[in-house]
Every structure is written in C-alpha cells, then in structure tokens.
Amino acid sequence: NRVWTELIHSKKQVLEEMCKVILPVNDRGHVDIALARPLIEEAALKSWQNHLAHEKKYISKGETLVPSTQSKLSRVSSGFGLSKLTGSRRNRKESGLNKHNLSSQEISQWMFTHIAVVRDLVDMQYKEYQERQQNALKYVTEEWCQIEYELLRERGLWGPPIGSHLDKWMLEMTEGPCRMRKKIVRNDMFYIHYPYVPETEQETNVVKPARYRRAISYDSKEYYMRLASINPAVFQHTIQESSEGETAHQELEHGEDTIARVKGLVKPPLKRSRSAPDGGDEDSQEQLQDQGSESNSIEEEEKTDSTTLLRLLEEGEKIQHMYRCARVQSLDTSEGLLLFGKEHFYVIDGFTMTVTREIRDIETLPPNMHEPIIPRGARQGPSQLKRTCSIFAYEDIKEVHKRRYLLQPIAVEVFSGDGRNYLLAFQKGVRNKVYQRFLAVVPSLTDSSESVSGQRPNTSVEQGSGLLSTLVGEKSVTQRWERGEISNFQYLMHLNTLAGRSYNDLMQYPVFPWILADYDSEELDLTNPKTFRNLAKPMGAQTDDRLAQYKKRYKDWEDPNGETPAYHYGTHYSSAMIVASYLVRMEPFTQIFLRLQGGHFDLADRMFHSVREAWYSASKHNMADVKELIPEFFYLQELLLNSNNFDLGSKQNGTKLGDVILPPWAKGDPREFIRVHREALECDYVSAHLHEWIDLIFGYKQQGPAAVEAVNVFHHLFYEGQVDIYNINDPLKETATIGFINNFGQIPKQLFKKPHPPKRVRSRMNGDTAGIPIPLSSTCDKIFFHHLDNLRPSLVPVKELKEPVGQIVCTDKGILAVEQNKVLIPPAWSKTFAWGYADLSCRLGTYESDKTVTVYECLSEWGQILCAICPNPKLVITSGTSTVVCVWEMGTSKEKAKSLMLKQALLGHTDTITCLTASLAYHIIVSGSRDRTCIIWDLNRLAFVTQLRGHRAPVSALCINELTGDIVSCAGTYIHVWSINGNPIVSVNTFTGRSQQILCCLVSEMNEWDIQNVIVTGHSDGVVRFWRMEFLQVPETPAPEPADTTEIQEECADPQIGQEAQDEDSSDSEAEDPSMSQDSKPSESQSQPSSSSHRSRVASGRAGAWSADSGSDDSRRWSDQLSLDEKDGFIFVNYSEGQMKVHHHAPVTQAEVRLYSKLKPGYRWERQLVFRSKLTMHTAFDRKDNTHPAEITALGISKDHSRILVGDSRGRVFSWSVSDQPGRSAADHWVKDEGGDCCSGCAVRFSLTERRHHCRNCGQLFCQKCSRFQSEIKRLKISSPVRVCQNCYYNLQHERGSEDSSRN
Fold it and tell me: Across 815-883, where does the E strand assignment appear?
C-alpha cells in the first residue's frame, strides 16, 4: 500500500499516460489499488516485457545506458526506492556476471570469498571487543591496586601502625627550591631487583671471579625469611622467578601518575579524542607534516577503542595538536605522544602515530611499521621506565628550554611549578615547532615570573646591550650574582640549566666544582687559600706532575687518519658513569650503575668510598680521572649513606665498604658534611674565584686557543656541533659514536665568549684580625639571629586585634595579622578563610573590611574543624575532630568561587588533628595529632609518605623550613627536628619547672648553611625562646649489649631511646631551671616502653644524630656534674671536666671554635639543640614589670630577617628588631621604667622628675649615682663603654682580667 500510495502521489500522471487510462479517484482524492488493477494490468505487463527486452539488448552489447534512451519504467521508478534496482552499478555487475555464464564452481568460489570476508569482519570485531574488555580489566585492576594499597599501607585502615626497618626508599624526581631534589619515596621494587638467593644457588657462583658477584642487599635475606614464615610458597616462587631473571608483578610506583603496563591500548585508527562541548576549533586545523609527526584535531567519526586514551584525559578535553616524542630519563627513553589540549598538555608513553596518522600502541606494532625517534644505537637495552601518563596545566609551566640530546638539537625540557620536569626528544626538524607551540599556549613563558633556578626566565645571562634594558635597569643574572643578590649555588645551578645540563639526562648532568683541597683538618679554615682547590685550573692541572704529562700528550699527539685533533684529556669531568658512581648507594642510581657495569658492582678499590680519596684520585693520582662534582654534594646527605645495606665488597687492604668515609671536619655526620661543604661554596674566597672556574666550564676558556692555553682541551667528540649522527651512513660507526657520547660525556653549551666578571666580595673592615673572615654577623648586617642579645623591642604593639593572634604575615607593604581560626590566602593576602562557627561552616572574607564574601556549608559532614591552611590560592586544607585531612579545591573563576570541591580525603590519624602546615617549595603537607604522631603527605599526589613518631604529648605546633625542608614539631615541652624525609635530627625538652607548653614555632630561613640560624618557640608562660643546633662533645660510653642495639636500630623510631635521660639531664644548658632534671625523669622513664617499638628510618643510628648508645650511667654522671646558674635569663654552663665554658648567649667566634674543635680522647661529637636567648618584655608572666602578660600564640619573621614579630593571646603583635646602637637603646632584658619605683642599688625612691638609668648589662633601674660606672660588654657586642651598675662593672672587669691572663 505504501509503495502504491507513493507511486500515485508522485507519478500518477506518467502512469496514466503510459497505460492510456484515467484512474478513478474516491471521495478523499485517493486511487484505490483494487479498482485500478484491472485498468492497468495489461498495459503494465506489456511495458514490463518491453523493459526486459530493452535491458537485455544493452547488456549483450556491454554498453551503458544513455539517459535519453531510458525505458518508460526507468522514468517511472526514478526518484524513489525502486531506483536501487535500476541503478547503473547494478547494470555493471549484472553485465559482468552475464558475460560469462558462471559455472557452479565459480559461484561456490564467490560464495566462499564472501563468507571469508564476513568471517574476517566478525573476527576483527571480536578482537576489538576482547581488547576493549582487556583494557577495561587493566583499568579496573589498577584502580583496585591503588585502593588496596591505600587500605594496606602504613597507617592505612587495615595497614600496620608502624613501618618496618625493611621498608626501602628511592629518590623522587621532583625538585624543590634551587632545583634541589631531596625527597624520597617508597621503593616497592627493591626486593624484586635484589632478591635473596639461598646458599645452594650461590655455590654455582663461586667459580666466577669476585668482581662478577651479583649485587645483593643484606636486608633481602631477612625480608624473604619473613615472607617465607607467612607463606612458604611465595618464597619458593620468588626465588624461582629471580633466578630465572624474571621480574615479578610490578606494583604501582609512587611519584608518577601511572597507567597500567598495557599492551593493546588503542586500536587503529583513533581519529579523535573527546571533543569539547563548543565544537571544533577551526583555527587550529593544520596539515600533516614530517611523516605524521604533527597532527591536529581530527574528525570524530570512529569510536574504536580510543576509550583507553580518553580515560587519561581531563573531562571535556579537546586535543588540538599531537606530536611524537620520546621522554628521556637517566639512561632510558620511553616513546610516546605529546598532546596539546585546551588547558593542559599530556605526555603519554607507549603510543605512536604511524605514517597513515593512526594512533597505535607501540608494543602491538610490527617493527617495520615503526621508525623509533631515538636511533637504536643510543638505547642501552630495553627501557626500564614505567609507562606513565603525565598531565600538566599550562598555567603551571614555569620554563621551557631548547635542549640537545646525543649532541643533536632535537629536544626540549619542560619545567612545571610542582617540581616535575621532562626532557622530550623529537624527530629531526620538529623540535622548533613544538617549542613555538609551547610559547603560544603558555603566555607566562614570556613574562617576568621567576624561573626554576630562581631567576627570571627572560633575563639574559650576560648584560643586554639594548638601550631599553639599560633604561629599565633590568639586571642580568650575572649582574645579580656579582652584587651578591643570589648565592653561588643558585648561580651555578642557573648556568647549568641554561647550558643544557639536565637531571633527566645522565650524559649531560649538572656539573659543580670541587671546592676544597683540605680533607684532613679537624676544622676548616675558610680564610686560608690553601684550604681550597685552584679554581682557575681544570682538575687535570691541579698538580704540576700531572699537568706536565697532559701537556706532553697534547704536544706529541699524532693521528695517522687525521680525523682526531690533539687533546689533553681523553676522559671527561662529567659522564653517566661518574654520576652513577657518586650516587651508587641510592636508588634508582644503583640500578643505573649496575646497568652501566653489566649487572654487578665494580671492584671495591674503584668504588666511590671516601671523599678524601676521590679528591686525590681526581686531582693527583689517576691520569684517567679528571671528574668534577655533582650538585648533590651540596644538599643531599643520603648519597653518603649505605641505607640500602648493599654488599659493596671489601678493598684489597681489607676495608669493608659501607657509608662514605667523611673528612674529620664533618664530625662523622653526613648532614654536617653537606652543611660545611655548602658553607665553603658560599664563602668569600670561593665567591672571589668562582668566575675563573666558570670560564673553564661555561666560558671563553672552554674552546679555542684560550682552552689550549688553560690546558682544557678534551677529545673532539665531547663538543657540540662536532658530529651529526643522522649523517653517519655506516651503522657500526653510528653506534660507536653514540656509545662514545653516552659513555664519555658532553661539554656544556658555551654561555660566555669573554672573561666572566668576578663577584664583589665584602671588603675587610678596619680592626678585624687577619685570618678571621668577616662573619655574617658583623655590625653591618641586620639579621635578627646574629644579634639575639641586642634585639630592641617595640614599646607599643605594632598591631592589635580583638582576639588571640593566629597568623602573622610579613609582606612588602607591611605586617598582616589575623585572629585564631582564620588564615590569610596567598599570594595577595587580601582574603581570609575562617572556620570555627557553631554551624560548622567556613567563610571566605576580605582582610581589610573583614566582610564575609562566601559561606561554605559543605564541610559540616567532616565534623568540627580545628585547623586549616591555604598553601596556594586554589587549595584549602582542613582538619579536626574527624581525624581526616581534607584537601579542598577552591574555584578561582567567579562561577566556581562559591563552592569548595573535595579533592582528596587523607586518612591515617587515629585521634583529633591539632595542627597543619605545608611547604610549597617541597610540595608536602604535615599534620600533627593528639595521637602523638605527625604524618607527612605529598601535596602533588595527595598521598601518604611517612610518619613522625616519638612525641610524648599531643602535637601542638608544626613548621617547615622552606630552604632545607626540615620539619619542626612541638609536643608539650619538647621540640623535635626531622629531615624532610622523616629522619630524626635532634630533640630537646624545654621544661623549666614552670607550667609552660609550646604553642607555636618558627624557623629562620636565611642562608641555610649559616650555623647561627635559629628555631623560635612561643610558650604559654609568655616567653619566646631561641634554639640553635650545635655540636657538643659528649663522653663516649661503652657499647650496649648487641641485642639492644639491634632492637633499637630495627624497631625504634626515635633512636633516642635509652638516651632520653641524658637528653634531659645533659641539656641543662638548654633548660632554665635545675628542677627540670628531677621532674622530667619519672615521665621519661614511663615513656620509654611505649617508644621502644618505633622504627628507625634511613640509618638513623649511623647518622650520629640521635645515638642509641648514650644513655648509660657514665653520661648521666657527667651530666650531673654540669652546674647551672641563671641570672636575669642568661645562662652560664660550666663543664666541670675542663670542658670549654660556653656562654650560651654569646656567639662563638671562629677563633674560639678552632680552639675547641679538636675532639678530646674518650669524647664524641653530638648534635644538640642549645638554648640561645629569650624575649620576655610585654608578655612574660614572671616579669613583674609586665602589666598584661599573655601566652605567645603566633610568630612571624620579616622577609629580610631584620625583625621578629610576636603575637599573643590578647591580640597584640609586638616587634623586635636589631638595635642600631647596642647599649644606647632599649633591650629586652631592660626593666620597664614603670616597673620600678626605687633604685635597685641604694633602694632610694625615684622622684617624679628624676631620670631612671638602666644598667646595660643586667637591665635593672638605678639612680644616676649608682649607675655612674662605664664598661664595654663583650657578650652584648657593645664595644664602646656604656653605663652599668657597680656590681656588673666589677664582674665585667673581673671577666676581662681573667680573659687577658688566659691569653698570656
């Protein structure tokens, strides 16, 4: 009926003409088929027969129909469904079939062909379905593994409360300030890389020479024994696997956004990933170039299994550009794709783009379809990198630099604000397009934001000669360094970054100079030129003997082929092997070293084992060794410790290799070695000569005649532009050249073509004794911690609030302060985030008007909030009674600003969380709780890192040193200091016999190598106290029972166990009241059992920070002999055994240090927190002249460290700054004028008009007669005579006389 209706509707007239009839129409205007059939039947039959005859005639001739000769039926049928039967294609097919009358055999062949096609189609669809299922399974498995890890990790819901000493760690690749990499993360692959092999299997290895022993860790045996005790089958299985050389299942690696180790991720051809809701971006359509290296937004017709790739992208992402790339890390490269989206770019490993623009998984591609980006000769075995998908927001990109890889200009290095940086290599000719693409999508790359190495990215290295830069007064990096605005370390790191040196490429790792030549002294003399290496000469020219041999080699050089020009050195000062040998004790560098060495450690005599021996080898003894240092020698103590307990073998003289042997001036402490080494790098002598070394490595003496003159010529293949690996046709020669570059190193890019200017070093002041450097604490500086006894208080508050002060921020514009339960939002500090309301809501307000802008009610389900922080304008971190640390994302755009979105809930604490702090420089959060622990969380991954155990009370205050990453936690009266990785450094009890708790803490952050830096604590007794980390000599004690040692080293988190008594007794120097030692003993002994189960992290006992063996009777007897004297808040500690007399309020001069630096027999060095000074004016409860004493609730330090700000529970903020004229203006220990109505000397009452005089020494009030005496006060750095009372005058004269006699 439908066909008939359609036919009548469109062709009624044609039909009536053809059949020569008039069709009857009913009432509704329709033609009934039953009535029409008899009228048209005969005519239609005739017409059909004519049509068939017409068709056959043309088919037999093999001609196509001409439209003008179409049959009537064709004319009728054209225009709707029937045309399919009469189309020209059909005619062709029929003509082909009818031409040869097909036999049944041919018909069956065609049939089988058709069946095969269908079968192939179904097979392909089934295969695609299977791959989709596999990918979904992998995705779900990975998600499940992540959930399982979170549940079973240390402090997880079902995990152990304490970590094990068998936990292993590896260096994380994210960078902190000045590009320092200090953080370590869990290494779940350790026991897979170093499995325990039972004795039976080792017997087969006995035949092999000692140098080919397999790399083992002594901890593996215990780990596998524990595993075997739980599940023997697992143990057997693991040994079997390891002996076959297989790797067991790979657990998720922390520190990267991992995707599963997938094989068939995406089938061909992936035309498009998810499009944005607003449709395509027409401007970005570009043509395919360079054999599919670049592709653009492609149509989204095909929805093959691109879901796997889509899953890795952000919601609503629209990919606009795509490039093939290879990510370079250490020795490995991992090929993948670089995708540019709307607001993010992605580096996705494991995929490639074929010539036909299909996206394929590399592992499923046949080799002939895939041309690798990195030449095959450059890859050292299969890549060991995990396949990852990394996402970077454009706004987080700090810098993008063009780079060389294998001496070819084919790479870029991208630096992100969260500390990640990637080195990406491209096909030849593509690199510049990618670089331009980055400049287009990241506008901040061209503005004046600060770079990763601390400089503005667009600042030139050398001074720009343009008129504009002169007028604007923009300083080059070099000029900033010359003026002392940036440190030597910062400048060297910046030059390395600009010269193309990268942590990601071991072949061109950052290079730093050997600084010192003295590795034998007990104390370094940084004013003696003999302490230092000659920075004007390369390492090969440090001794005359070697210099003569190198010159002779250059002079006598002859090359029969004429290909190799003359050179001094055939080895380089920086190569992959040198870097790996320095860092061999740390993962992942141990694995890199083993790969370079063929799977085993080197002979013990050739391993890096002693800093002194390494210096002598590189400067004197070994003709093939001219190596320089790496940056880690100036910030990373872990490189000196064998914390993984590797069997590194024994030297020929029987010395067993373990931790690196340190010079005597390091006092046996890796942390102190790093500090002193950095201090040497920043000292005046090095500052005055560093430009000479820069000339050799980055400057005009690097190449040409100046290099020959400076004896600084290396093999020609080390230099940029000497070789083009793409033009070498001989595959053997190509592989050999690449191998040479890989193994021997590369010369950095030349940055300076003329001599580098020297740094302006401070001139020596009159009256200073020669041989003693001008200390940083000379009177010209205004750094508060150099003048702790000369801090001048503000007589009135600089700011007053209505409630207790909660936070103080010093900005360039002035001092900002907010009440408790409120926090300022960086970087503008114009808004506040407040909590603590009865309805459990939180509020966003403005600082100036205190007006609420937004109320957030979504936090109420997380219970009462007790603490919150805002590390950056996008994040708010809250915590409280829920025991959960909640990380919220605050919308920055107007429509999103009204809501907080929960980004992650971090679970680990078992009681109320009392305090939070975060470090943007090191990307960590630290939370402290009533459960007496702190937990370190990673701010980038929002994941658990480790915990800090051993507090004796709920944690009340936390702070992080943004320069060093050190964490200070306060609990009750105790201060604990930890490294960024949770290793205990030192702790002290501040108990003074009064009821006082620590309520807030702060650290000074200026020149991290400066030993005078302080920890500042604010107490409930209204006193601000200053503490300094110092090395003191304490008696050696007999080693405890072996059983105890193992227990302490393995399970004790706080290697102070057994030493706590001494910590409290011997630290009378830190305490302020003799009653402390008696009061603290009972509580201390009770706390011991609970802390004996704590674990130790990286070689805590070995580091000598808190030693496990100092709690014996000897040390207690010694500490009991300390006599304590407290007068006016100044402490004098007398060591009765002839120990040096320390005035804890006076900085020790260099000469005094040298006098006592020699370690006495029977003593050892121990780091302790030493009380240095205190502030009591206005707030201290025990000062009678303070009319309104109050607890200290907040502390702040100005950016230039010239002022310290103290906030109290009455809402007042007071300021202390360095006095311009010591002794002429008020000091903290001065009694206020209104605090005394009579003279302290003669007790006569002051009249109303009488002037009251302060004794500059004791601070008491005197009349003019009683204070007529004048004297210098050495301990207060008052060098001209000032007014003092009679008693102080005689004491000062007596001290001076005894000092003079001791000198004579």
Answer: 815-819, 822-825, 831-834, 842-846, 852-856, 865-872, 875-880
Q: Which residue has the tokens 């297989």?
A: 246
Residue 1062 has pLDDT above 90, yes or no: no
- Sign of dihedral through CA atoms 694, 697, 698, 704? positive
Q: Which of 958, 952, 921 is nearest to 936 (CA)?
A: 958
Q: Taking a C-beta distance cutoff of 8 angstroms, is the pair 919, 957 a contact? A: no
Q: How far apart are CA 697 and CA 547, in angstroms?
A: 18
Bigger pLDDT: 62 vs 1297: 1297
pLDDT at residue 996, rounded to an integer: 84
Provide the 3-class DSSP secondary structure of residue 708. helix
1109: left (phi > 0), else alpha (psi -120 to 50), else beta? Answer: alpha
For CA atoms 577, 583, 588, 590, give the dihedral sign.
Answer: positive
Mean pLDDT score, 189-194: 90
Q: Quick count: other Cβ atoms within 10 Å of Cβ 485?
A: 12
Residues whose CB falls within 8 Å of the CB of residue 34, separated by 6 or more in sequence, listed in order: none
d(CA 127, CA 364): 13
pLDDT at 164: 87
C-alpha torsion angle, residues 258, 260, 261, 266 (rounded to 10) = -110
Residue 15 clears pLDDT 80, i.e. is over it? yes
Cβ atoms 215, 599 nearer than 8 A: yes
Check: CB of residue 351 under 8 Å from CB of residue 428: no
d(CA 474, CA 462): 11
Distance CA 1035, CA 1107 (A): 12
Residue 890's closest CA among 844, 852, 937, 939?
A: 844
Q: Which amino acid is at 375?
A: P
Of 1020, 1123, 1109, which is closest to residue 1066 (Cα–Cα)?
1123
Q: Is 188 helix (H, G, I), strand (E, B) or coil?
A: coil
Contacts of 1292 (CB under 8 A, 6+ apart): 1257, 1271, 1272, 1273, 1284
- Angle between the N-to-C axes of helices 670-682 and 684-697, in degrees from 0 to 180, rounded to the nearest 10: 80
Distances (CA, A) of 1148 to 775, 777, 828, 836, 1157: 11, 11, 41, 47, 12
Yes or no: say if 788 and 1173 are a contact pair by the CB < 8 Å rule. yes
Mean pLDDT of 737-753: 79
d(CA 1106, CA 1104): 6
Dihedral pair phi/psi, residue 1261, rounded to 5°: -90, 135
Q: Is 532 helix (H, G, I), strand (E, B) or coil?
A: strand
Burial code (b: 16+ CB inside 10 Å, e: under 16) for 442-457 equals beebeeeeebbbbbbb
Peptide bond into 827 cis (omega under 30): yes
Q: Is the dihedral of CA 723, 725, 728, 732 positive or negative?
A: positive
Q: What would the two tokens of residue 954 be? A: 């709920």
The secondary structure of residue 1032, as a DSSP letter, is E
Q: Is the pLDDT of residue 922 over 90?
A: yes
Are 676 and 524 spatial neighbours (Cβ–Cβ below 8 Å)? Answer: yes
Closest CA to 1212 of 796, 847, 829: 796
- Residue 531 is which amino acid? T
Contacts of 802 (CB under 8 A, 6+ apart): 819, 1211
* CA–CA dist 623, 656 (Å, integer): 26
Location of structure tokens 């004319």: 75
Model pTM score: 0.76
Q: 649: helix, coil or strand?
A: coil
Alpha carbon distances (Å) from 297 to 273, 289, 343: 8, 14, 15
The residue ranking higher by pLDDT, 809 or 66, is 809
Average pLDDT over residues 501-514: 91
